[in-house]
Design goal:
This protein is an alpha+beta fold. It has one helix and three strands.
Length: 71
């Protein structure tokens, strides 16, 4: 099960919660204030992977397929 980061819209607290991939966010409660108005945040892992794919040079590091893709 993946770990997701949430932010409480009522008190602003940030917290993590284990959730299934297709499990809705309904029912997630803030551990600080008990509020149910939370939003799922993008993790730094997800945003860094996205930024590498859209780098200005058009290449990404760490690939083993070379500059032309699979051969």
């Amino acid at each position: 099960m993946p770990m997701y980061e949430f932010r409480c819209r009522e008190c602003g607290a940030r917290f993590e919660e284990l959730r299934g991939l297709n499990e809705p966010d309904a029912g997630v409660e803030c551990p600080k204030c008990g509020g149910g108005r939370v939003e799922r945040l993008l993790s730094s892992f997800a945003t860094s992977a996205t930024s590498a794919a859209s780098s200005p040079s058009g290449s990404s590091s760490g690939g083993s397929c070379g500059p032309r893709g699979f051969s």
